[in-house]
Bacteriophytochrome (Light-regulated signal transduction histidine kinase)
Amino acid sequence: MRSSVRDSDDDADLEVCAAEPIHVPGSVQPRGVLMVLDADVVVQVSANAEDLLGVAADDVLGRTVAAVLGDDAAAALRLDDVADGGPLADGLRRVVLHGRTWVASTHRNPQSAVIVELEPLADQSADPAEPYRAAYTVLGQAATAGSLEELYALTARGVREVTGFDRVMVYRFDEDHHGEVVGESRREDLEPLLGHRYPAGDIPPQARALYEKSWLRLISDVESVPRHLVPVLLPGTGEPTDLSFASLRAVSPVHVEYLRNMGVAASMSISLLRGGRLWGMVACHHVDGPHTPSLEVRAAAEALASGLSLQMVVREAADDAQHARDVSRALEALVRAEDDPVAHAVAQPELLRILGVDGAVVRTGDVTAAVGLVPDAPEVVVDVVRRTATPRKDVGTEPVYTSDDLRGEHPELKEQLGEVAGALVAPLPDGDLLALFRREVAREVTWGGDPSAKTVDRDEDGTVVRVGPRRSFAAWREAVHGTCEPWSDHDVRAALVARRTVVELLYRRSRPDLGAALVLQHSSLPAALPTVPGWRLEARYRPADGGRVGGDWYDAFELPDGRTALVIGDVAGHGLPAASAMNQLRNGLRSLLLEHRDVATAAAGLDRLARTLLTDDMATLLVGILEVDTDTGAGVVDYVCAGHLPPVVADAHGARWVEVVRNPPVGAMRETVRAGQVTLVPGESLLLYTDGLVERRGTRLRDRLEDLRSTLGLTCDLEVVEHKLAGLESDDDSTMLLVTALPRP
């Protein structure tokens, strides 16, 4: 076997890295003991049991947890209520063994085996709540961060304060999974790494998948010797034990070598997720020997990073919302131009500045409009990009194609490209298109070591058998020429706003009946929301892609007795029929609420009306009546939920679902209508919404609803919530009605 250093790309080394089964290493880090249980009987244990517990591994096997640890410790573990692997804090317990305090974690692994991990507490007097108090202090500071960059820096500083590592970095991954250090807190004597980039190959695909499931990983001592499990395979199955969620899971030897080459003695990483996908990471490094934050400290750091990650996502959504407003303003003339609105809008140079591009082409039917720097044959370039580029993910419901390096990827297009170096292509319906172009920008990229300098071991016939990490992580600067400024997700989302506006115009021009539906829809929405002293009412409606009008509506008005009616509803379908049915239901419910004091009686009357109006379609509804106590500022909402999604209550501490009293959809209730009640105190908000905000093809409604709840726990800005949840493209309209009891002075 011979060893060599790579200086070129090779898919073989990636395949070798990806084949390593890192979730089933068969061994653990020696700082703690791991036991695998069948019921409450130990069927596997790490070989260091004798070192830490004073009981040989063979003497542990086949015994109950109580027999090994004692009745009190076994009871503290609550083995009758063990959850699947998830956030670290969910299964943490303190236990006392031989007069010493340990921290135990429990979870059920993907094989349904119960995993118990025990780590001795180094500081026996440590207050378990202290790390959380420190974490919550940092979370409170996040509200004052004015930008994403400030949030990145705050995250690095906060995690370092909680965990005590020498260096903490926030990585952000681009669409190709390359990472960039966007936030850093470090010891003053350490070299700064802010702005350094690290290649995607540093995190193999199976490691990336594991980071998306198990959010925190500690390597307390890179020089420690792993201890194997006894027996090696899981009894009863003969398979390796899945340690995906185990804190003590042993480390890949390649990763240990990677850390040694960096001069790191201990490390910890925390995943930053968006929609369940890994978008970034908090990386913690210690250079002066081993470092072992307790399980409780790690759980607090995980909670802190998770909370700040959500803050970052919300901040990004807020930035996108502002950018979308800027793009929309630049396209306002689009709706005023009567002859060719698309060409009129594209001809505005302001649009290029806001989109951050040097040229644009829009083709609609037989008309092509261009402005700024464009290729000599834009259709040829666009066709090549669409056929060869990988669609961008997680930015919309329809594909968007980008290329930063048209000249390098397609030298055959050299003559047509001219000064154009990159393109973004957003297809429109019926073969039409929107394309944006950028010129070359020469720049310098600083990598954490030469990304191509991996150590490769081959056998005698040249087959790659092992790939090691690069030996040097000194700053390696790469001069990049011939490419444009990379197309960020922010750029893509801005382009989607422009595409959505163009599609809406084209759809309106092709559907004469849409104008009537739009007029009917907008006439059904209140011109203004009522004024309630000490309260604030806000609403937001957005049509589906292309401006297609659906059956969503909201309403709020004062009743004769001083109370306030709150309504949100949704008639299935789009276009004039849905808008017409919605308008009749809205008017009917208004009359019923003005006539009847009881919300259930009004809802029952609407149910009878709907049976004649909605012969084929279905409607859902949530109608409430708000009564305010002027002395306390609190309010009570009596409501009827007819097949509608549950509302959310949010305050400064988070958000929670209302446990609604449910009824069938409107027109199908027939039996006695049941009403519920929710109380709001000053500082609390109640959000009513339609399904267009949360439903998406290919995603679970449960996950989308959790995204809504967690987002509202951070912000009740409806525009930000819409951009975070509904995104930039949707095939359904969405509506929100927010009612807030203002804090009392």
